[in-house]
TrEMBL record:
The lineage of its organism: Eukaryota, Metazoa, Chordata, Craniata, Vertebrata. This is NADH dehydrogenase [ubiquinone] 1 beta subcomplex subunit 10. Keywords: Electron transport, Membrane, Mitochondrion, Mitochondrion inner membrane, Respiratory chain, Transport. The keyword Calcium does not apply. It is a peripheral membrane protein. GO terms for cellular component: mitochondrial inner membrane; respiratory chain complex I. It is found in: Mitochondrion inner membrane. InterPro entries: NADH_UbQ_OxRdtase_su10, NDUFB10. Belongs to the complex I NDUFB10 subunit family. It comes from the Eukaryota.
Amino acid sequence: MPEDHDWEAYKVPPTRTPVSERTTSVPNPVDYFQTAFNYVLDAPVTLVREWIEKWQNKNKFYYYHQKFRRVPDLSECLEGDYLCYYEAEAQWRRDRMVDQEIVEIVRERLAACKQREGPNQFQNCAKEMELLAQVTKAYQDRYGELGYHGNARTCLMKQKHRMMEERKAAQEN
């Protein structure tokens, strides 16, 4: 637009909206109702809500980051200590679920990389493929062939047998 523009062609909007003049001297009942509502209902509710929020901010509780203390492994439990057996079993189940989620996350990352890279997936997603191979091998070494009803005792026995086989193979070499 040139500096000497035509004010008639490009009119400037008004700087402020004109206030309507009251045509009656009778007060508006809506104003009284809004004021009464604010003082009777809204103000107490707002005060209680602010007090609750202030109290909750002092005591933050993140329910989705529940941390369990580590309990002794099944191999560290004393004979006949059934409570220790139960806690070790619960710990093993939590560890298994965490390991399953780790495998699933790595698998999803690889799928996303393959989708993103298309035909170049073999060279651009090599790190993800190698990581998935390592994670699944570790998962299979620990939990493979246990089935759905596997428990901490059978997992411990499997690990013991694997360690004995590795030791026997090392002695033969």
